[in-house]
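Reviewers of the previous submission asked for a worked example of the structure-prediction workflow described in the proposal, so we include one complete record here. The input consisted solely of the amino acid sequence. No template or homolog information was supplied to the procedure at any stage.
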Amino acid sequence: MATNNIVILGAGVSGLTTAFLLSKDPSNSITVVAKHMPGDYDIEYCSPWAGANYFPVGKPGSKHAEYEKATWPVLKELTEKYPDAGIHFQDAVTYSRKKDQQSTSGKWMSELVSEEPWYKDVVPNFRKVPVDQLPPGINNASRFQSVCINTAVYLPWLVSQSRKNGVVFKRGVFKHVADAANAHHSGNKADLVVNCTGLSSKFLGGVKDDKLMPARGQVVVVRNDSGIMASTSGTDDGEDELVYMMTRAAGGGTILGGCYQKNNWDPLPDPNLAIRIMKRAIEVRPELVGKGQGIEGLDVIRHGVGLRPLRDGGPRIEAENMNGLVVVHNYGHGGFGYQASYGCATAAVNLVNAALKKKDKAKL
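From that input alone, the workflow returned the following structure tokens.
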């Protein structure tokens, strides 16, 4: 059997999911090379900071929505059959306020909080909240079953599943994407490189994608149990601030967020924003703390900042020929890397397979 030598650049959720899917084909010999690996917490490495959950935000009929739609069945199966993956089901509620429709956060969340979203036929038990049960200031709300992912468990799980299939992991930093072809563990040049470097693709030689920008997110991780997953379309504290919360599986704590600050590179938590995040969470979910308690009732584990790899026009999933080397790109997923991970990775795998097939024909 012919062997396909493949190098995957990047070990965030996109790179690891792509590696996992490609590793299921025994003809693929895969090396994942990355500056950051699961277990690292660095501002350049977005995946560990994510919630992460399934809250679809793709517009109806878009590729983005199709990627999210294709990912749900896989996340559902992992939750049901693989408890070691660190994913669990969680009841979810979304709140919409009409006054948020033109804000930065409101535009991003518009499909999630829509009265008739496309995903109502995808997720289990979708239903509208009756008008007489809506909190003050809320115009419509929906409930459904979602999942929450403990990234500290799930990312290493993806590594372990890939390693079972023979994938080799190693550290590396490259100035040009084509240089990664020389990093295959066999010592031979790779037949193909998959670029999953996220926001770093803005600066990586051979890519330097000016459409990429950070969408800064800030969270507070607490020991308190939220009981449900919740999100609103916006806040009165600023048009790029958000309210969301979710309790991670397997003791991962509860994530309180947040913000969606485009082109903000600040890696340090803003203490004033942290206070607003905690206050807003308690307003939406008083059950987080004891009766009559404010933010002093929250048991804080840590504060965190992540830079979502937002790309104008959506993620880049396409093949490119660089002087005879095929590079398949899979980056620029903004704040939906996990909930679109299998849809995007499958699209990337299809491009890899097509390129390898074309290369094999050329050899004949």
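The domain at 4-358 is CATH 3.30.9.10 (D-Amino Acid Oxidase; Chain A, domain 2). We consider this example representative of the routine output the project will generate in years two and three.
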